[in-house]
Every structure is written in C-alpha cells, then in structure tokens.
C-alpha cells in the first residue's frame, strides 16, 4: 500500500508542509549553503585557498551515516510498535464486544427461593449494549491519554463514561477546598474560546441554511461553495447527549501553528525575551507570593478505570454463573490484552531518546557540514555550493524524520491517525450489536443456501426433502448415504482446486 500524499489530497494549505521536513530544516540548509558560498568566494577571489584534504570526510561520513541510519530505524520501529499496539486494541475490542453480545445469555432465570427481581430481556440487552459502549470508550480514552489530554471531559469520551460510579463521581479542588461535581448542565465549548453549538442549534442552522440555498445546506465559503464531506463531518453527533458539569473539550484539538513553527530560528529570540522579562519581574517584584491552590480537577488513569469496570462486570457474570468457563477465560485474557497494549503505548510515548544522544548527534552533524565545504572545494570548485546544500538537506532531513516519528501519537500529518482507529472501532462495535443472535436453523435450511456447490447446485431445502433424510447424489446414479455425500465433496474439492488456479 502506497502512503497517501497529504500535499495533494484535499484543499491545499501552508499547514500541509508539516507533512514534510522542509519547514524544520530549511533554516539550517540555508545557513550551511551560505557558509559554503563564503568559503568558495573567498577561495576564488582572494589568494587564500581554504581547501583541505578530504581524508577526514570519508571516516566521519561513514560514522555519521551509520548513526543517523540507526536513529531513523529506531524511530520507525517505535512507529510500527505503536501501530501494532493499536491493532491489538482493535482486535481485543471486537472480541470482547462479541463475547458480551453473543455469549452473555439474555434469559436470566431466578433461583428458587431467591428474592432477587428477575431481569427482563430488554433490561439484559440494555446492560450488554452499555458494556459494549464502555469497550468503545476504552480506545477513545487511550487516544486522549497518549496525546497528554487528561480526564474524561471531551466530546467523544464523556458521554460514554459518565454512567459508571467510579468515573462519574469526580472530586474538584478549587481555592484550596474540596467540592464534588454538580449535576448542572452546561453547553459544550471549545478550549480555544470558540463556542460549539448544541445538536438542536446545529439542526436549526442547517434547516435555515437549506431553505435559503435550495436544500443544499449551509454555504461556508460563499453562495457558490460546494459542500464537501469535511464541511459536515461531526461524528460526535451520534453519541449520547448528556449534560456536563464542566465545559467539554473537542474530540480533536490540535495546537495552533504559529510563526515559530515556520521560522524555527525565531525561538531563540523568544527564549531571550522570556529570560530578560523574567529577570525584570524578579528584580522589581514587591508583591507577596500567594500560595497556589490545588489543580481544579484531579484526574486519574481513565483507561485503567474502564478496565476495572469491565473486570467487575465479568466477575459479576461469573459469580452469577452466566458465563461458560472458556468464555470467562477469554474475557479475562482480552482485558489483559487491553492492559498490556496501553502499557506498551505509554512506554513508547514516555520514553524518548536520551537528550545527550540527540544533542551529540546533531552537534556532530553540524560540525561535519561546516567542514564539508573545506574538504570538497579542491575537487568541485563552485559546485561545492549545491553539493553542500544537497548534503545538508539529505542528512538533516533524515535526522529530522527520526525525531518526527519518534512519538507517533500527536496531531502531525505523519503521526498515526488515532481518530480513524477510534471511529473504526466504533463502527465495528455498532455492527456487532446490530447482529441478531438467531437460531442457525432459521437460516440454514432455506432455498438461498447451496452448501455443496459447485459439485451439487441444489439448495439446503431441496437436499433435506428426502423422506428418509438421506443424501442422494445429483448425477442420477441413485446413490445415497454418507458415502455418496463424501464423493460429492471430493468432486467439489477437485473442481475448486482446478478452477481457482491461474496456471
């Protein structure tokens, strides 16, 4: 599969240069190119010859090439490990949902002499669907955890995790006092100050816009703007609408790009300005420092809490005798896969390459590129300038790629699409819960089922019409019984083996 090119997919914006490393390395490439230009012009226009022997170039180039290759391969290995762990979460989510939906019985007979109120089929179905929704919430919670977004107050997570007591009773700290979460309803709002309409308001706006534009819907880009899928894409509208005691943050909230992202060398001036400003504040500070209050919200490890609720549910099922031993073991193993996957994802996210290694590698590469024009000038002359530019672009690009994909869980275009993984799990789990657990006899012996094709094209209803309930060959030989059925299967195997081979 060829990776999609983000530069030419969708609407083109300057932000899409973030998919390359050009926006990160172009200042360094320009610096080394200008330095090479100075070396060449001085050597050509003055009596000084700055060229030196290139023996050191071969040794340093080989060492740097191996080190940069190791750096890039180790970063890509972390990228691949992150994808494997998300595959494990996807498989475990679907397996656990299937076991809950199919293997947990709907009929709940009450033991004789028990005062427990029997559960109706509707109550049992609601119980199982609720737990499947919690399985869906697990992947969303892991997504926010890896992105450093703590808590449950997100538009795609809060509606799925509000009902368990351990996730609902939050403790808040404000002004040094402890208070519990209230039940007042608030509108969902963005963290950057932009107000997000409720579903009712969205419907009213869409209706009014459709009536004004001939049923085509709102026109965000003007009267002749053609609506696209991205204009109306809002997957959070399918989630439950539940009032929150805190403003809900958006499901996807990438950081805003600033001029420092396009001009990285300006970060040095920002750092200098902060140091100078801080010194002025410290020198003229006369106000008494006040003790800071605790954080307003005390958050916990949400994926861990979800697995605790699911483990408690499986323990309750086993205590009631509602799960077969094999299924109970499979449920426990699936929950262990959840724990193992999130632990490995946190290991990838929280274990960066040591700073000493990164700093030494970058300084070594800078020294190599600074010495490069001196060593190749005698052989290339004016070609030293483009040669240095190409070498700096190549080596700095590979070094930046390693740093780019080292933590693949953020919002960069080269990172893993965690939102896609979560939405894919959501679709699959809803498809599982839409499955009706019908008795196989209801669909096996029908006229649409031809189990013995291609050797016998009769359907299952015709095959079972015999009054003696025996199989009779379709070739008219009159043979019957299991021996005839096995010969028919052998003929079918030979025919399939012959017709499905290209050569």
Describe the 3D structure.
This protein has 503 residues and is mainly alpha-helical. The chain has three domains: 21-171 and 297-433, no CATH class; 199-221 and 229-238, no CATH class; 446-499, no CATH class. The chain has 17 helices and two strands. The protein has helices at 22-45, 55-103, 121-146, 158-161, 165-168, 199-212, 229-232, 259-262, 266-283, 302-319, 325-350, 355-380, 384-404, 418-433, 441-444, 460-463, 482-499; strands at 171-174, 177-180. Strands 1-2 form a two-stranded antiparallel sheet. Strand 1 (171-174) and strand 2 form a beta hairpin. Helix 2 (55-103) runs antiparallel to helix 3, helix 2 runs parallel beside helix 13 and helix 12 (355-380) packs antiparallel against helix 13. The chain is flat. Residues 178-223, 457-483 are annotated as: Disordered. It is found in: Cell membrane. GO terms for molecular function: chloride channel activity. It holds the Pfam family Bestrophin_2. InterPro entries: YneE/VCCN1/2-like.
Q: How many domains, in number, for the residues?
A: 3
**Uncertain regions spanning at least 5 consecutive residues:** 170-229, 286-296
The radius of gyration computed from the alpha-carbon positions, rounded to a whole number of angstroms, is 33 Å
Global outline: flat
In helices, the fraction of residues equals: 55-70%
How would you describe the oligomerization state of the chains in this entry?
single chain
Classification by helices and strands = mainly alpha
How far apart lie the N and C ends?
26 Å
Count of distinct strands: 2
Report the order of strands and helices.
Answer: HHHHHEEHHHHHHHHHHHH
Summarize model confidence as the mean pLDDT: 77
Strand content: under 5%
Counting H and I runs of at least 4 residues, what is the number of helices? 17
**Largest β sheet strand count, sense and barrel closure:** 2 strands, antiparallel
Strand order of the largest sheet: 1-2
